[in-house]
């Protein structure tokens, strides 16, 4: 099962140095999810060969333009491309008013249904669920209500052991039932227990997306042990006063959260336009949390 | 006096083939004007080294997203960059409601004044004037109210003849007065007429920006003889039924307008995403109007 994140935009509020505002595309085995969609997201999707048709769910962390000014372009292009199946948007209610105001003036009636799901910034909630995944909101601390999103894979089916298939000559039509935990009865009536036939499923994977936020330890328990954490690191440590003033994090703060939450890997992004060279930011993170990588446009991370 | 147009985006409604939605930057001797600002305009301005600080006037032809989804990103970046001087926006009143709705939800109070100037699509009107230029609206025919914009240089001062400066030993402090039409009185009382001292000023230059529109001869008288006409040419001639249906023009229609209006040069753009190779569009235009060029991102045209 593919579980991949492609970085479409890595920059903070003011685009600079050919870096785009925040957006990431999550591909879970062909199901597409957008995490934020700053200006230019649809252009970046084309550039990195991400098919728009795969996208059914867009999560918006907060109503600052660098996290959603690309939304209306995507909605419009879907319409011009004759999309017919619904599109789901998860975010604060203001998003819906902004989108509806535009379509009213453009005199556009969409060919497809736009379904808004309100996110509330009081406590972590389940905002999405299907057979494979859950998505929870993460309460962040920024200048306006802001939530991150935590993708968790559900526990998959048990793994059938190839050797046992052969040993007991198990017919193909029995396999799904055994993967779901069933025993197997031989033609002579002997029952082979599931525990002999299967191994534990792969451990469920998880990805936490935390932007924009100041340093806040209140998120640590919720994200503990995730495979990959994206945490904004807008500023170098020397600019920590500016980070606090604007509701953002420094490199060391992001890395400290990763360390305390015992995550597998840290990706940092939302870089301030003041930094053309990003290597000092990476260096500062690695001093605290060695397995850190920079969010760079076009990079694909496997979870 | 520089009078230049830089193409920031050349594509029609759906961005494709690394072409951006419509936007052009007009530089008149250091004064900056934007004509439309599709998604990604601020990114394109950075790419082509256009200083945002020079920009004081933004003209929006109509409320379709591919002509203004980049507006809010520009307004936001100005704010983050501590802009203090006013910014003027010329367009339909819906633009103001869309912009204000966003800033309300983003809880943003702008540091600078945003001045909206309503454009009305009934007849051509003067929408802007300063000491150097006028800008008139051009009534176009599209699916929703749409206006083009016609930039006309004012007639400049007369040109003083270098030989005469020397012959009559005219002091520097007299020059401005003579350029404005005054005569020169020699120390002995002899009056030298202005007509002897000066030549005619350069003929005023003009640039017409016409997008989006179906073929309409009603614009011809207004744009007759402009130095450069930008006219949309969304489709090849073989797709003229689709052009008519969507309120757009074909190559041959754009070139026919240029021919009938006796313009100096034609630039075509707003290309449909269906065309990756643009050379057939150029070929069809040139068959009717040889001095045609394609709008290509980053190209600078001197008027």
From TrEMBL, chains A, B:
Matching Gene3D superfamilies: Ribonuclease Z/Hydroxyacylglutathione hydrolase-like
SUPFAM superfamilies per record: Metallo-hydrolase/oxidoreductase
Cofactor: Zn(2+)
Entries under InterPro entries matching the protein: RibonucZ/Hydroxyglut_hydro, RNase_Z/BN
Pfam families: Anti-Pycsar_Apyc1
Keywords carried by this UniProt record: Endonuclease, Hydrolase, Metal-binding, Nuclease, tRNA processing, Zinc
HAMAP family (UniProt xref): RNase_Z_BN
Assembly behavior: Homodimer.
Protein name listed in UniProt: Uncharacterized protein
């Amino acid at each position: 099962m593919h579980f991949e994140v492609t970085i479409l935009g890595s920059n903070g509020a003011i685009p600079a140095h050919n870096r785009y505002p925040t957006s990431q595309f999550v591909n879970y085995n062909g199901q597409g999810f957008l995490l934020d969609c700053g200006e230019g997201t649809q252009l970046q999707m084309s550039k990195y060969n991400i098919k728009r048709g795969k996208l059914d769910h867009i999560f918006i962390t907060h109503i600052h333009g660098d996290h959603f000014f690309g939304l209306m372009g995507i909605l419009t292009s879907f319409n011009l491309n004759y999309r017919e199946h619904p599109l789901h948007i998860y975010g604060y209610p203001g998003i819906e008013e902004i989108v509806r105001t535009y379509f009213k003036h453009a005199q556009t009636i969409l060919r497809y249904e736009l379904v808004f799901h309100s996110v509330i910034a009081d406590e972590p909630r389940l905002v999405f669920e299907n057979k494979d995944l859950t998505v929870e909101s993460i309460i962040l601390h920024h200048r306006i209500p802001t939530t991150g999103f935590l993708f968790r894979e559900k526990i998959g089916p048990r793994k059938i052991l190839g050797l046992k298939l052969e040993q007991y000559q198990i017919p193909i039509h029995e396999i799904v039932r055994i993967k779901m935990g069933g025993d197997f009865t031989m033609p002579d009536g002997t029952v082979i227990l599931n525990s002999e036939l299967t191994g534990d499923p792969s451990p469920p994977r998880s990805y936490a997306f935390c932007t924009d936020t100041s340093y806040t330890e209140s998120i640590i328990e919720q994200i503990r042990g995730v495979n990959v954490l994206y945490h904004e690191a807008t500023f170098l440590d020397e600019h920590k006063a500016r980070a606090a003033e604007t509701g953002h994090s420094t490199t060391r703060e992001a890395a400290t959260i990763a360390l305390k939450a015992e995550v597998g890997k840290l990706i940092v992004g939302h870089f301030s336009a003041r930094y053309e060279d990003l290597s000092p930011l990476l260096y500062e993170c690695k001093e605290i949390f060695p397995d850190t990588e920079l969010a760079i446009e076009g990079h694909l991370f496997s979870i």
